[in-house]
Amino acid sequence: MDTASFAHSLQTWTGGGPLWIWAALSAFLIIYLIALPFGGFATYVERKVAADFQDRIGPNRVGPYGLLQFLADAVKMIAKEDFVPAGADRFLYNLAPLLVVVGACSAFAVLPLSQYLMGADVNIGIFYILSISTLVAPGILLGSWSSNNKWSLLGGLRGAAQIVSYEIPVALSILPVVLISGTLQIGSIVEQQGWAPGAENAAAYHFWNVFHNPFCFVASILLFIGGLAETNRIPFDLPEAESELVSGFNTEFSGMRFGLYALGEFAEIFVMSGMLTALYLGGWHIPFLNLDSLFVKLPSGLIALVQLGMFSIKTLSLVFVVMWLRWTLPRLRVDQLMGMCWKGLVPLALINLFGTAVWMWLFNGRSLAQLIFGIAGH
Amino acid sequence: METGYITALWFIVISAVTVPLMLGIGWLIRPKVKGSELKSQAYECGEQPVGEAWIKFNIRFYVVAIIFIIFDVEVATVFPAMTLYKSAIAQGAGGIAFIKIFLFIGLLLSGLVYCWVRGDLEWIKGAAQGIKPRK
């Protein structure tokens, strides 16, 4: 199985040209065709899902079923008055949405959309995604502090405390995957999760990481919980908390500045779900089917499309669960939130790490699937 | 491999350009309205804002930040060792790698236990021990 970045694929498909142009074009295409449209369209889906859960109709005026609502919203937000509160620190107030959008959209670079469509399959992929998505935390803190509003400041402080605290269980829940895969390169991590009965070189593939061992199953759930807290979603939406803090950290942000915050938030949800899909749920792989070992050799463009579809199905299902939880769970209190992180998730994540390491040592690195089917270790 | 880093840099550049671009388009097409002093006040539910929001905030946020820094540095330093664990097992050196990794993580864990026993993980410090705040 050969893995190629999106830039290389573009170069192959079009037949030439300097690579840096294709690199720029691939970044442009992924941001403007996937990240931002998803962020916009997710606002519509969020409202429609909310309406369904509450037995309402939801947006239905713009386009069939209200499908074009997000375009109307975008036009409205762009054309709105640009408002900066009187006492604000103007430089930081302008900088804050930028940090949120850069943090959320740049993380798309290492999402494994398909083996031919990865933006940048760098060998420190996990480091990159962890560090760049942390930019959202200063974005929220600076935005809240600079707008010189007490509600904003409270929301921002809570947000900063929450995001940095939940960073620890998230990082500790990623470590079992690093133990199993022995690499930080996300493309390679996904590749190792492909497995089909009778595949050649079966020792190198260990099926989805979530089924590698029982500890990994728990770790994937911890990663999802941590991701919810990182993206400020219910039940962890204390930084926004409409019912107590007006709108939390973005109270003084209106028009397109608010729109950018919303875009960044939804893009981050996609990144979080995509990362869970890539690390634990097999990424682009179709269960029990290996596209490379079919009777006919499929063209790389078709494989790319099928894999993109599979990755999207898994990721968007997780996004739907995130929206579903919003109408299911109540909001936590601040002390419960911090207690749950430091006294619940962090020790549990350490136990998972320990358990995975012991499993690797005992069974010579073999996964549950490999043990069941009696595949020898390497 | 360098292509990957160049592409990642392009991602950062393009997403950073997007923000001024959208705000710039807005500046071009929106009707120009003159703001007023009353309108540009901070929104505090219709009340007159009293003083600034740039106040001293609770020390507990610093404690959380300090605990986070220690943990995050330790997690970052343990990543490379984790990457080599699989090949260590393949070479039959799993035991020594396991002991080395978890000696380090044990230190991390003892830090957590220390904070827990000291009560730094309580959001309201001393509440669990029944210590009342001073009147």
User: Which secondary-structure class do the elements of chain B indicate?
Assistant: mainly alpha
β-strand amount of chain B: under 5%
Strands of chain A, count:
0
Question: Biggest β-sheet of chain B: count, sense, barrel?
Answer: none
Which class of secondary structure composition applies to the elements of chain A?
mainly alpha
Mean pLDDT of chain A: 84
The stretches of 5 or more residues of chain A where confidence is low (pLDDT under 50) are none
Full CATH superfamily name of chain B: NADH:ubiquinone/plastoquinone oxidoreductase, chain 3
Q: What low-confidence regions of chain B span 5 or more consecutive residues with pLDDT below 50?
A: none
How far the N terminus sits from the C terminus of chain A, by CA atoms, comes to: 19 Å
Tell me the quaternary state: heterodimer
Radius of gyration of chain A, CA atoms, in whole angstroms: 22 Å
Helix percent band of chain B:
55-70%
The biggest beta sheet of chain A is recorded as: none
Overall average pLDDT of chain B: 81
CATH class term of chain B: Mainly Alpha
SSE sequence of chain A, one letter per element: HHHHHHHHHHHHHH
Total number of distinct structural domains of chain A: 1
Task: Say how many strands of chain B there are.
Answer: 0
Helix count from the secondary structure assignment of chain A:
14
Element string of chain B (H = helix, E = strand): HHH
Describe the structure.
The complex is a heterodimer of chains A (378) and B (135). By secondary structure, chain A is mainly alpha-helical. Chain A has one domain. In chain A, 62% of the residues lie in helices and 0% in strands. Chain A has helices at residues 6-14, 19-53, 69-78, 90-106, 125-133, 136-146, 150-181, 186-191, 214-230, 242-245, 255-279, 300-326, 334-362, 368-372. In chain A, helix 2 crosses helix 3 (69-78) and helix 4 (90-106) runs parallel beside helix 11. Chain A is globular. In chain A, 56% of the residues are buried. The mean pLDDT of chain A is 84. Chain B is mainly α and 135 residues long. Chain B has one domain: Methane Monooxygenase Hydroxylase, Chain G, domain 1 (Up-down Bundle). In chain B, 62% of the residues lie in helices and 0% in strands. Chain B contains three helices and no strands. In chain B, helix 2 (60-90) packs antiparallel against helix 3 (94-118). The longest helix of chain B has 31 residues, at 60-90. Chain B is flat, with a radius of gyration of 26 Å. The N and C termini of chain B lie far apart (63 Å). In chain B, 21% of the residues are buried. The model of chain B has no long low-confidence stretch (mean pLDDT 81). At the A-B interface, helix 1, helix 2, helix 4, helix 5 and helix 7 of A face helix 1, helix 2 and helix 3 of B.
